[in-house]
Amino acid sequence: MQPVLEIFPDPTALVNYAASLFAQMAQAAPGRFSVALSGGNTPRALYEQLSAKDMTERIPWPKTHLFWGDERCLPPDHPESNYGMTAAALLSRIPLPAENIHRIRGELPPPQAAERYEAELRAFFGETPAFDLVFLGMGEDGHTASLFPGSPALAESVRWAVEVEHTTPPPPLVSRVTLTYGVLNAARRVVFLVSGASKAAMFARAWHGDDVPAAKIHPENGKLLWLVDQAAASALSSYECPSRQR
Ligand code: 6PG
C-alpha cells in the first residue's frame, strides 16, 4: 500500500489532525486499542492536544493501551525520558488505567529493559505484534524511534525490542531501547509526525526512499501516513536523487 502524505500549514494544524485521527481510531477499535508513542517535540505537542478537555472526552481511555516505540535509558522521572515527557503532557491528565500503561523500564540496565519490554509485548500481543497505531518522529539524520543510521538494530529481524548504544548526536547520549522494524512494520497504521524546516532535506530523502532508517518503515499489511508541515515539506520539489547528484 502506498504511503499517504498530508501537508499542513503549521505544526498546530498537523497535531490537531493527528489527535482527531487518534480519537477516531480509538472509538472505532472493536476491542483493545493499542498505540505505540514516540518521543520528541512534535509528538509532545500531540500528547498535550490529546489531553485537552474537548479531545480527551472523545477517547475511550479504558480500552486504550499505551506503549512506546523507544525510550532513553533514564529513570522515568528524568526530564529526557520519553515516558516522563508523556506523563507530564498526557498521562497525568487522562483517566487511563495504570495497567494500560506499558512503559519501557529505562531505569534498568539496557539489555534487561529490552528483554522485559519484549516480554510485556509478547504477553499483550501473543505470537504476532499488531499495534493498531504507531506514532513515529524522524530525526534530522533520518532516524526514527531509536533506529539510528548504521546501528546494528537496523538489521534485527528476530527480537521485538533491542537495546541500542547511542554515543553520537542527537542527545541525550545514553543507551536506548527501541522497537525493531519487524514490530513497526506489522502495525495496522503507522503515522509519522514531522515538522520544521530542519527536517526538510531529510524528509525529502525519506519520502523518496533513500537509504535512511525512516524510509524503511513500510507496514506490510497496514497503512503508512506522513503528517508533515509545510516547513518540513519545503524541499520536496527540489529533491535530487543521490545517484543523480554530481
Ligand atoms: C526520541 C524519539 C525520536 C524522535 C525524533 C524526532 O526518543 O527522541 O523517539 O525518534 O521522534 O528524534 O524528534 P523531534 O520531533 O523532537 O525532532
Topology:
Blueprint: E1 4-8, H1 11-28, E2 33-37, H2 41-50, H3 53-56, E3 64-68, E4 70-72, H4 82-89, H5 110-125, E5 133-136, E6 161-164, E7 176-179, H6 181-184, E8 189-194, H7 200-207, E9 223-229
Parallel strand pairs: 1-9, 2-3, 2-5, 5-8, 8-9
Antiparallel strand pairs: 4-7, 6-7
Helix pairs in contact: 1-2
Bound molecules: 6-phosphogluconic acid.
What key attributes describe this structure?
246 residues, binds 6-phosphogluconic acid, six-stranded parallel β-sheet, 9 strands, 7 helices, single chain, alpha/beta, 28% helix
Report on this structure.
By secondary structure, the protein is an alpha/beta fold. The protein has a domain at 13-182: 3-Layer(aba) Sandwich (Rossmann fold), CATH 3.40.50.1360. It has seven helices and nine strands. The protein has helices at 11-28, 41-50, 53-56, 82-89, 110-125, 181-184, 200-207; strands at 4-8, 33-37, 64-68, 70-72, 133-136, 161-164, 176-179, 189-194, 223-229. The protein has a six-stranded parallel beta sheet with strand order 1-9-8-5-2-3, with helices on one face. Strands 4-7-6 form a three-stranded antiparallel beta sheet. Strand 8, helix 7 (200-207) and strand 9 form a beta-alpha-beta unit. The radius of gyration is 17 Å and the shape is globular. It starts with a strand and ends in a 17-residue tail after the last strand. Residues 38-43, 69-70, 82, 137-139, 143-146 line the site of 6-phosphogluconic acid.
